[in-house]
Amino acid sequence: MRTTLTLEPDVAARLDECQAADLNVSFKELVNGLLRMALARREAMVRKPHAKHFATKVFRGRKTALGAISSTHDMLAMADGEDYL
Questions:
Q1: Helix, strand, or coil (residue 8)
Q2: Neighbouring residues of 31: CB distance < 8 A, sequence distance ≥ 6
Q3: Residue 64: pLDDT band with limits 50, 70, 90
């Protein structure tokens, strides 16, 4: 595919530096290679999950100082001041 691409002056200067460093590469090969690398990196970033995996530790509770509260009824009875303990 042939297309016209307008490069910003700073990008053009950096491409010229890259081409001067490796005289065996044409400008077309240089631009195509750099675009392939940038696109591959972008695809890898898109596929990477952004959420971190976490795990919750299991807490093995024992009898509390308030006694054995095993239901909402027990908790309300204690809160209402009934002779729970």
A1: coil
A2: 15
A3: low
How many folded domains does the chain comprise?
1
Predicted TM-score (pTM) of the model is: 0.50
Q: Phi/psi at 64 (nearest 5 deg)? A: -80, 170
Q: For residue range 22-59, what is the model confidence (pLDDT) as tens digits? A: 778 888 999 999 999 999 999 888 776 667 778 888 87
In a domain, 84, yes or no: no
Structural contact between residues 30 and 19, judged by C-beta atoms closer than 8 angstroms: yes
The residue type at 8: E
64: β partners: 67
For the beta carbon of residue 84, count every other beta carbon within 10 angstroms.
14
Res. 10: pLDDT tops 90: yes
The residue range of the domain holding 39 is 9-47
What letter does residue 56 receive in the DSSP assignment?
A: P
- Give the CB-side neighbour count of residue 6, counting CA atoms within 13 A: 0
